[in-house]
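Extended Data, panel c. Modelled sequence:
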Amino acid sequence: MSVTIKDIAAFVGVSYSTVSLVLNGKAAENRISAELEKRILAAAKELNYRPNTLARGLRRGVTNTIGFVISDVSNRFFIKLARYVEKEAMKYGYRVLFASSDEDENRCVEVVNTFLNQQVAGLIIIPAEGLEEKIAQLTNLKIPFVLVDRHFPKIDANYVVMNNWQSAYDATEYLIKKGKKRIATFSYATNFFHMAERLDGYKAALKDYNIRFDRQLVKEVPFLDNEKSEVLLGEYIPHLVEDLNIDSIFFQTNSTAIPGIQILYERYIRVGKDISVICFDDNEFFKLLMPPVSSLLQPIEEMGIESVRILIDEIKNKRAKRMKNKTVYSAKLIDRNN
């Protein structure tokens, strides 16, 4: 059973309010002697007292907790991001509560509302598609929050994201410089802005190198149906290689790259067909393949640290009409086929 302030008061032989004032650092201003303060603190240590920071925060109308809305707990990128967010938040004295939206708009709204009801100090959100209305509401209510990985261009909000256009441009340019001209790409069937940026970056690189954009080489798979996506990849890749004569593929996501690369290795690369591959983002097993797979590495740790920094600043320095923090990172191209 946990020790309470009343237990300490009984142990020392003083009132509950006296112990409360000492433990809250208000001994001197309430004329509590240094000797008594020392006795109370010693008793608290001896009894192994642990303050209920959540209850204390609720009484003050806020808690030293951050709500982190993760879109997909099975995604390696988000798992690593959550780890760095939690580690950084602890340095500021904040705990992090995690919940997944499963990439569902209604679920995402529900999770955000639950965190607000728990009186979290602020939110870090990987928003689901269609969450613009809720994000706008948070802005109007002046709730401290930061969007990570994705943002909505029409909403002025704090965010930490990748330069998806440049990353896709760099990936496509990398393949072009290897002599590739029939470059296919895989993306998701979604309205996410960051995915549109990746397709635009791919197109821009082709244009700059005078390679005609061929719509047939752009394939989309369902965003939330991995089983169906794998079936479609199994159909698309042979068609691209055997009928459309592609010489390379830019996978815009790890979720398409993993099953896609498996198909390529089993049916083509293993038997000597020259098909180059680059992926956004990196995965540990890419370097173990033969030949290894080049990739674009996202600075996940830096993104986690920056999102916490921005949020803590927003929590502690609430200012009307302040400029929003909009941090955009560049991916590092890892060339494993020099």
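The first strand starts at residue 65 and ends at 70. This feature is highlighted in the accompanying rendering.
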